[in-house]
Structure formats: C-alpha cells, structure tokens
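Protein modeling request. Please complete all fields; requests missing the sequence field cannot be processed.
Requester role: graduate student
Desired output: 3D structure, token encoding
Chains: 1
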Amino acid sequence: MRVLVIEDEPRIASFIEFGLTAEGFTVEVADNGADGLGLAESAGFDVIVLDLMLPRMIGEEVLRRLRAGGACHDKCVSPGWVKIGWCEDRSGRTPCGREDIGW
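Delivered output (103 residues):
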C-alpha cells in the first residue's frame, strides 16, 4: 500500500514515515502543500496523510482541490490531525478545535 505524507515538520514526517514503513507501507513525503498536491494528483496513493499548516498551500486547500478533482475520496486523512489536541483551561483538560491551538 502506498502512502503520501504531506508534512512540513521534518521530525514529524520522519516519525510517521518510520512507523508506516515498519508496518510494510511504501511512503513518500512532501514538505509543502503545492508539491504534495502534485504528487497526490499524479501518483495513485492509497492513503494521504495531510497536515493542516503547510507552506506554499495550506492543507485545507490541498484537500479541497483533491476532492474537487476526484483524487481524494475516502483515502485522505482529514487535515488537522496534527493540530487537534487538548487545551488547558481552569477546569482541566478539554478537547479543543484546531483553531484554538496556537502552534
């Protein structure tokens, strides 16, 4: 199975690539949205892992274009997978949306 990882943080990309490769996947990595879009449209990946905050084109735009072109149906992991997490507030840990995290 071929996986495209579109992630601009080298440490995160390497971590994902290492884990997927260890499980037998063939992995390619793009470090910006524009290059990732080009690869995704031309190379026939089974799964696309997509970061939200990317240089040259944000993840949401990449996903929108892939869906509009028919290249991304159920094989794309929704953007924001790196960004969604937990926010600290006075009552403890609560889930928060990606727009609430200031990375």
